[in-house]
């Protein structure tokens, strides 16, 4: 039995603990780094340089293509472009992976996956000159949600629940946004989305004001509704 961890501080602690019970323990990293193990009786460390080469042929930053069967998934094997929470992205990755492992969704052929990787690399090399493994959080999560079957279409939602659709179009993207439809649908998703702004602002308040006006979400909804009508009046004949 073996275990594989990342190269962060917590991963190093975990690797140290589990190495006492596993036959092999691997530390994975994007590039080389130094490890200073304590090996003598006085506790003095000696530097050991380890070069780590990560396998880059990973479909949608999750599934290694070289495996015969999709029995290994890499969660969090990416960097987010400036805006977006990696935790939300990993949550969406985990939901997709669970369906693959359960046989409820299928990966495309190896040729299709390699072509997708080639296009991603081509784009990244054109922008950065190297393979940076970055993702735009929202489009990436939308793509995974489509594969998982939980992507919420805003067009029909606008006619059935305009308030919610406006919040989803102009407000923050939260994990609950992908819990409205499809597998693992959550009844409380709508309320969580509508209260996402209030939840954010409430966490910054240390005192409760004597006068409590209308909620932030209500003002946001009204403002976005006016903006939507203005945009439609400009572009629609």
Automatic annotation (TrEMBL):
| Organism superkingdom | Eukaryota
Record Pfam families: FMO-like (PF00743)
Do the record's keywords include Glycoprotein? no
Q: What class of enzyme is it?
A: oxidoreductase
Print the keywords alphabetically: FAD, Flavoprotein, Membrane, Monooxygenase, Oxidoreductase, Transmembrane, Transmembrane helix
GO: which molecular function terms? flavin adenine dinucleotide binding; N,N-dimethylaniline monooxygenase activity; NADP binding
Q: Does the keyword Transmembrane apply?
A: yes
Put simply, this protein is called Flavin-containing monooxygenase
Give the originating organism.
Holothuria leucospilota
The top of its lineage is: Eukaryota, Metazoa, Echinodermata, Eleutherozoa, Echinozoa
